[in-house]
Amino acid sequence: MANEHIRNASVIQSEKSISFAVWLRAAATIMILLCHFCSQRGGFLFNAAAQVLNIGVPLFFILSGYLFGRNGVQAPYRKWFVRRLQRLWIPYWMFLAVLAVVHLVKGLDIFTKDWLLLLFGLQGSTVGVWGAEQTWFISALLICYSMTPWISIAADGIAKKHVPILLICLCTLPIFLLLMKPVAIGTLLAPVCLYTVAYFIGSRIVTVNISRVGACLAVLIVLVSFGLRFVLRIFFDGMVFYSGIVATYTHYAAALAIFYLFAWIFAERKPVCCVTFIGNVSFEIYLYHYMFTIGPISVFSITRTWTINCILVFSITIVIAAGMHYLSELLEKRIFVKTR
Known about the structure:
This protein is mostly helical. Helices cover 76% and strands 0% of the residues. It has helices spanning 2-9, 19-41, 44-53, 56-71, 77-105, 113-119, 136-157, 163-178, 183-204, 212-236, 240-265, 273-280, 282-293, 306-339. α2 packs antiparallel against α3 (44-53), α4 runs parallel beside α7 (136-157) and α7 (136-157) packs across α9 (183-204). The chain is globular and about 60 Å long. The two termini are 30 Å apart.
């Protein structure tokens, strides 16, 4: 089988051994932080910057799909799935425990339907819990994980000549999904298509090599994608065509181009310690930053200076993310040893 031959021909490395993946994970994390920081600042330029920086979310889906496709998902799939859930649920439930305490201290009710859905990752695209709005992606990620074994089987079995046809189908399917009602269908399933495309790329291309011409083309795709987004907003803002199809496709095209640029630029560059650190705690940073930025314990009103408030949020988030990451790793090791 084609992708099995590729994987067997190369030494399979873990996610942490791929230099550009660490750089990209850290960069995507910073983009998401800056996105929410800019949204707090307000104004035309900062709102526009927030729309651009929101590309950090699709970058995570691309990176996850590519790494799973590159390293392969070996049977028995049940063990793989349980392992992924452990890595997801432990830090996620720890975050929910912290958020629940915050809600109780503030006199907010946590015994609600929204909290129950949040607990099992079924919140969908509209999260009804203050401080957890950013966790909509958990539902999409669970769909990706549940489909990964089937994606792996398809990647192993499909003939090379049929791969372009499959990729075209995956790239056009979101158009129909994003036009469906409820809107949650497109919001949750479009990232699954992106994840699947990235998985097939990883299963076929172990080492991403592009020429200078290819790099220039990738830069052009990024510029054109964001240019189209802002130009079309003038004519179609407020319409489903813009908020769904235009916003999604321009972000996905730009994210894929950025992925290739990082794979080319940082292929042989060992991550510096701060980049490695942010990459390692990226999930916790994503989970906790929102409650300090927009959530129930926002610190953006502490001073009148936006820059100082950003530094405060970043510092608090980093400290808490590092501590919770350490605790979640301890719990994961104990649980994994018992269930192995």
